[in-house]
Hints:
The protein has helices at 2-34, 38-45, 54-57, 78-90, 103-111, 114-123, 139-151. The protein is an all-alpha fold.
Amino acid sequence: MKANWENEKVSLFKNLLLAGVAAASLSGMAYAANDMSPEAIAERTKPVGSVYTAADLEGIVDTAAAGDSGEPAAPRSGEAVYNAACSACHGTGAAGAPVKGDTAAWGPRAEKGRDTLLSHALNGFNAMPARGACGNCSDEEIANAVDYMLDAI
């Protein structure tokens, strides 16, 4: 009799578990059906941001302020280039870069001459990548940055 009662408990537990799973599945399907409306799908899949072209901004942004005047931009100063690109290494000494203003570190380099330093800055030297990893810097801007660092010693 005890074995029969155990079988009935197991059977009852299985039935209750099956009923619970069925109820959860059905309620999940009803919830999912509500979220499958075209409006809900559009809301979930809408773009996070927008891309604007110059035509989109016409009349909103002054074209001269946006840099579309047709005139080439003036080269940045040595300080501006240094702060934007060079200071990451030459401000901290990372990868063995001489720190701006450190006369002891810059002395032997300066003795090689400005042209050699400019060539190293443009083409890369030791751990320094070409152009100091400033891909948008012109040759003149790189030269301005070299002069800016040399003026500090």
